[in-house]
Structures are given as structure tokens and as C-alpha cells.
Amino acid sequence: MGQETLSNLLRETRRFAPPADLAEHANVTAAAYAEAEANPEAFWAAQADRLAWTKPWDTVLDWSNPPFAKWFVGGELNVAYNCVDRHVEAGRGDKVAYHWEGEPGDSRTLTYADLQREVSKAANALLELGVAKGDRVAIYMPMIPELPIAMLACARIGAAHSVVFGGFSAEALRARIDDAQAKLVITADGGYRRGKPSALKPTVDEAVAQTPSVENVLVVRRTGEDVAAGDRDVWWHDLVDRQSEQHVPEGHDAEHPLYILYTSGTTGKPKGILHTTGGYLTQAAWTHHAVFDLKPETDVYWCSADIGWVTGHSYIVYGPLANGATSVMYEGTPDTPHRGRWWEVIEKYKVTIFYTAPTAIRTCMKWGDDIPAGFDLSSLRVLGSVGEPINPEAYVWYRHHIGKDLCPVVDTWWQTETGAMMISPLPGVTDAKPGAAMRPLPGIDADVVDEHGNPVPDGGGGYLVVKRPWPSMLRTIWGDDQRYIDTYWSRFDGMYFAGDGAKKDDDGDFWLLGRVDDVMLVSGHNISTTEVESALVSHPKVAEAAVVGATDPVTGQAIVAFVIPRGGAAGVEGEDFAAELRGHVAKALGPIAKPRQIMVVPELPKTRSGKIMRRLLRDVAENRSLGDVTTLTDSSVMDLIADKLPAAK
Ligand code: ATP
Ligand code: MG
């Protein structure tokens, strides 16, 4: 960002109060804010008490060596025991943990008792392979039940897992295996995507040819396709199936490594984020309980993310299982075999809480309103969003077409680094505003500051920071403490800087404005890409938009917009449409935000977790060769876009 603070252009006045019934029975009430503020450590200690500890902690927080935090010092617990065994011991063994739905239409049901047996067998199998407490295990799998089982087996024996997206290349996998020095890789022959088997094992074979740390590769049979058998390969069904169903979990230190997860790479080289045991599980479980108002006896919860992303770690595996929830887990893509597949799954399992990403919502808008209208979605009661700022128009569409104007929408801001939700409405408390993540959760001290680290007044914009350690914070970047300090703790003294821009509205509520790296400097004004994109998406013919600042001789930077029209919209080609959109943005935000150039494109470059990679669009707009594309879903998208942009040819 330049010297001035971020301009605050968008005015949004819609408000949605919590449903009275939900508010009346909410898990968490407004009192939690004051309680947490009075004594944050006591507040988090009370949330940690929701878990079972084998040894109590001596100190809630040790911050004597910042920025290296220790939470629940001296305490011991087993994450797998907390997620599985304790529910069985409490007589809830028959309760469903996962309704799993395969893409081809096959399904499996796993109760907590099933999960206990499977996780124990897998833990015994890992031990037989020589994996020990403190080792690292790389996991490269499709969205099948063996994936959470493998993660929990690692957690049970105290080996840290490193889950790598099933869509990543051999080189991306190799780099992550090497960085963590993983001893074992757990994979599958493949999974189903877009109606056909998608192989994984050949990618693993290629990766492990160059990773000396790997001793074995454990392979689940999912698709039944032929795989090459290497010396180190072991079939899951040969090894795991014959193991004992008994495994006694031991307590691990609260600060014992639980997992490493690499960030999505939107802003550059991925970072290996380290999460540990006690604080992580405390915040993942509490936020899942509070922000979704989860009632484990009656709710059916579904998070549509991939487990290879942090959202899947915290809100498909650890948070929901720690709370004894019944979840849906789905293997495939939302448009296979038809574009109503998600809504069909919600109808089938009577899902009550649904958590997805803005990119998915905008895709559904693009496909058309009639698709969700064909399914019974009346079981839903709470909707969530994560991953990018949600454009107000997408929020209202989600609330109306999926939530039938009855379900609160919680827009949850957090990161791989934060481990769990940080800023979000509470569904029974907050009067929500479309596009706003609203307020830091109880126990979280986040603020928006100017370039000197001073809080901006209400109505101002700047940098989002966290001022106090939180239980599920990253502990370091794996193997690189200095990079941890430099990346997160050196921009502002004593504060964690997340990399995101934000503003406070006149009520002091928070609006996320995207990465500060993406902020555009136009004629001396800092303009957020998010606000211009949201203005474009509020045009009835636009489903998705990505905006970047390109060097301009007159204005410093000029706004270049890439837009995808809504399904069925007519008159979306040519100069007239571009002029119409420019006028629309000028009216919503002011003439300063008017794009210089508008390109209608068929697709946008996105990471596997669904985020728009603006840095690549900036490369195109400024006619440069493309930066790191290894975490892109589909790199051919960039060719489609370059074809549309005369300057880039
Ligand atoms: P990298 O750091 O490698 O570029 P990444 O930041 O995309 O990867 P994640 O940790 O998955 O990887 O994403 C966190 C980021 O996602 C946040 O910093 C923020 O920019 C964005 N984000 C997540 N949720 C929200 C939300 N509700 N509103 C606005 N932005 C969000
Ligand atoms: Mg990031």
C-alpha cells in the first residue's frame, strides 16, 4: 500500500438479524465477548476444558519468548482420543461420524465406533512400518474416509501429518515431502473426479523417486486401476486390515507437533505452517461449536472444502469430530454427474449446516438459480463462507437461493496460519451485513491499523493485525524460525500481520479487502480489488470478476478487470457491455474506481482451494511471463485469458 490508508468506497446498508429461535437457543450468547475480554486466558482455559486431558496444564499461555507461543504448558492430551474414543466411551459409539458420499454414487457410513476401530488399526499399521512419535507422514489422497482415518492415526501415535492436495504435481509433492523429511507417504491408486478415475499413484511414484527420506508408500485401493508396484509399496488392505482393533492412546504434550500444512501459494512460495496439539484442538473445536451453533444430537454438518486445505483440517476433521458431530463428506466435484449434485446431497442427508467458499457460490450463480430451486433445502439452518471476501451480491444470493432467507450466513475470516476462525459473526448474536466478517470472535484481539501500527478510526481502512496470541496460532514455519519472524512479526512491532487489508465501518465492524499486495494505487488512491470486484458482481449480468492494477503512464496504476458473465445473460460481448460495466462501477464506487479495461473471459486462474490468483492476471495485464503456477487448478486457463487480451500476445 502507498502512504495513504485504504480508500473506503463501498456502501452497503442491508442488515440481517439472527432468527429469533436460533438466538434463543444459541450455544454462545453476547455475554461471551465481555467474559473473554475480562480475562482472555481464563476464557480459553474454559474452552480447553471442553476437551479431555490426560495431564492438566500448569500455565495457560507462555509468551515469554515472543513470537514463539506455548499454550497449555505442561498439559497432555491425545487428539485422536478426543475426536473418537471419548465419544464411544460416553455411549455415543453408534452415532454417525461421517456420511461419506463417493462421486460415482457409492456411499459409506462410519459411526464413532467404526472410526475408533479403523483409526486404531491404522495406528498399529503405522507402528509396524516403523513410524514413531515425532516422525512426519505425507498424505496425498482423494476425499475418501481413509484420509481422516490416516490423519487421526498419525495424531494418535504422535507423528505429524503433512496433507498435500491430491491435485498437486509430482514436483509440488516432492518439494513438500522433502521439506518435511517425511518417512511415509499415504496415498491411493486414485479417486473419482468429473465422472472418471483420476490417478494419484503415478504422481507419488514420480515424486518418491527423488525423496530419500521416504521408507514406505501405503496405498489405498479406491478406483481399482492398475498401479506400478514399487519396492517400498504396501497395500492398505494387506497391512491395515489384519491389525488389532486395540490401540491405547497416550497423551502427547500440548505443544507436540500435530501437523504441517503448506499455504495455498496465492502470494508466492508456499510456507510450511506448523500446528501443535492442545491450543489448536481447543480453538478448532470451540469455534466450530460457537460459529455454527452446532447441536451434535440433531445437526448434520457439511463442509464442502477439500481436506488438503486448512478448512478441511479444522472443519471436516478436528473441530467436528472433537465436538461429536455428524458430518457429510463428499469425494467429487459439484457438477458431477449434474450441476445440482451438492443440493442433492443436502436433500439426501438433510444437512442443517453448510460451509463453503465464495468461489463456489459465484459458480452456482453463474450456473443459474433454477438449479438449487429443484431440490428440497429446507433442512438448512446455518450457512458459512470462507476463503475470500464474499461479495455482498454473492452473500445475498446464497442467503436467498440456498438459505431461503431463513438461515444466517456466517462469513468467517481466518488463514492456514491462524488454524481456526478469528473474525466472524455469531449466528445467534450478530446482526450480519452482507460482505462483512463483522467482529473478532470472543478471545481474539484483532484490529485494523495504519502504516505506523495505530488503530484506524471507524470508517477507515488499513492493515489487519492480531495483537494477542491465540491458542490455534501457527507456532513457526517448519524448519525456518527466521522466516516465521520475518513474514508475520516484523511489519508491526509486537503484532501479527496477516497480509490482508481491511476496513472498519461506521459501527466498527470489519470488512476484509483482500491482500495488501493486491491493493491498487490509482492517481494517489489506494483502492481494494475486492471493492471493485464486488461492484462488478453486483451488476445483474456478472457472476465473477477479478481485478488487478496494471502500470499506467498517467495514473500510476490503472484498473484492469476480468469478468465472467452469469449463465444465460445476453449482450455480454463488445464495447457496449464494457462501457455499461464501467458506468456501473463508477456509480457504485465513484469515477476513481472505473476500470480502464474490461475483458470478458470464460474462466479465472484459481488455486486448488478456489482463490483467484491475481498475481498471474497482473502478469498478463503487464505483459510479463507468468510467475509460479504450481498451485493452480488448471494452467490452461491462462492461455484462454491471454487469447482475450491483445496486449499480452
Ligand atoms: P499464501 O499465503 O501462500 O498466499 P493463502 O493465503 O491463499 O496462501 P490460506 O491460508 O488458505 O492460503 O488463505 C488465507 C487467506 O484467505 C486470508 O489471508 C485471506 O486473504 C483469505 N480469506 C479467508 N477467509 C476469508 C474471508 N472470510 N474473508 C476475506 N478473506 C478471506
Ligand atoms: Mg496467506
Automatic annotation (TrEMBL):
<dbReference type="InterPro" id="IPR011904">
    <property type="entry name" value="Ac_CoA_lig"/>
</dbReference>
<feature type="modified residue" description="N6-acetyllysine">
    <location>
        <position position="611"/>
    </location>
</feature>
<dbReference type="InterPro" id="IPR042099">
    <property type="entry name" value="ANL_N_sf"/>
</dbReference>
<feature type="domain" description="AMP-dependent synthetase/ligase">
    <location>
        <begin position="90"/>
        <end position="470"/>
    </location>
</feature>
<dbReference type="InterPro" id="IPR020845">
    <property type="entry name" value="AMP-binding_CS"/>
</dbReference>
<comment type="function">
    <text>Catalyzes the conversion of acetate into acetyl-CoA (AcCoA), an essential intermediate at the junction of anabolic and catabolic pathways. AcsA undergoes a two-step reaction. In the first half reaction, AcsA combines acetate with ATP to form acetyl-adenylate (AcAMP) intermediate. In the second half reaction, it can then transfer the acetyl group from AcAMP to the sulfhydryl group of CoA, forming the product AcCoA.</text>
</comment>
<keyword id="KW-0460">Magnesium</keyword>
<comment type="similarity">
    <text>Belongs to the ATP-dependent AMP-binding enzyme family.</text>
</comment>
<feature type="binding site">
    <location>
        <position position="515"/>
    </location>
    <ligand>
        <name>ATP</name>
    </ligand>
</feature>
<dbReference type="GO" id="GO:0046872">
    <property type="term" value="F:metal ion binding"/>
</dbReference>
<dbReference type="Pfam" id="PF00501">
    <property type="entry name" value="AMP-binding"/>
</dbReference>
<dbReference type="GO" id="GO:0005524">
    <property type="term" value="F:ATP binding"/>
</dbReference>
<keyword id="KW-0547">Nucleotide-binding</keyword>
<dbReference type="Pfam" id="PF16177">
    <property type="entry name" value="ACAS_N"/>
</dbReference>
<feature type="binding site">
    <location>
        <position position="311"/>
    </location>
    <ligand>
        <name>CoA</name>
    </ligand>
</feature>
<keyword id="KW-0007">Acetylation</keyword>
<feature type="domain" description="AMP-binding enzyme C-terminal">
    <location>
        <begin position="531"/>
        <end position="611"/>
    </location>
</feature>
<dbReference type="GO" id="GO:0019427">
    <property type="term" value="P:acetyl-CoA biosynthetic process from acetate"/>
</dbReference>
<keyword id="KW-0479">Metal-binding</keyword>
<dbReference type="InterPro" id="IPR045851">
    <property type="entry name" value="AMP-bd_C_sf"/>
</dbReference>
<dbReference type="GO" id="GO:0016208">
    <property type="term" value="F:AMP binding"/>
</dbReference>
<feature type="binding site">
    <location>
        <begin position="411"/>
        <end position="416"/>
    </location>
    <ligand>
        <name>ATP</name>
    </ligand>
</feature>
<feature type="binding site">
    <location>
        <position position="537"/>
    </location>
    <ligand>
        <name>Mg(2+)</name>
    </ligand>
</feature>
<feature type="binding site">
    <location>
        <position position="542"/>
    </location>
    <ligand>
        <name>Mg(2+)</name>
    </ligand>
</feature>
<dbReference type="InterPro" id="IPR025110">
    <property type="entry name" value="AMP-bd_C"/>
</dbReference>
<protein>
    <recommendedName>
        <fullName>Acetyl-coenzyme A synthetase</fullName>
        <ecNumber>6.2.1.1</ecNumber>
    </recommendedName>
</protein>
<keyword id="KW-0436">Ligase</keyword>
<feature type="binding site">
    <location>
        <begin position="387"/>
        <end position="389"/>
    </location>
    <ligand>
        <name>ATP</name>
    </ligand>
</feature>
<feature type="binding site">
    <location>
        <position position="523"/>
    </location>
    <ligand>
        <name>CoA</name>
    </ligand>
</feature>
<dbReference type="InterPro" id="IPR000873">
    <property type="entry name" value="AMP-dep_synth/lig_dom"/>
</dbReference>
<dbReference type="GO" id="GO:0003987">
    <property type="term" value="F:acetate-CoA ligase activity"/>
</dbReference>
<feature type="domain" description="Acetyl-coenzyme A synthetase N-terminal">
    <location>
        <begin position="31"/>
        <end position="83"/>
    </location>
</feature>
<keyword id="KW-0067">ATP-binding</keyword>
<feature type="binding site">
    <location>
        <position position="539"/>
    </location>
    <ligand>
        <name>Mg(2+)</name>
    </ligand>
</feature>
<feature type="binding site">
    <location>
        <begin position="193"/>
        <end position="196"/>
    </location>
    <ligand>
        <name>CoA</name>
    </ligand>
</feature>
<feature type="binding site">
    <location>
        <position position="500"/>
    </location>
    <ligand>
        <name>ATP</name>
    </ligand>
</feature>
<dbReference type="Pfam" id="PF13193">
    <property type="entry name" value="AMP-binding_C"/>
</dbReference>
<dbReference type="GO" id="GO:0005829">
    <property type="term" value="C:cytosol"/>
</dbReference>
<dbReference type="InterPro" id="IPR032387">
    <property type="entry name" value="ACAS_N"/>
</dbReference>
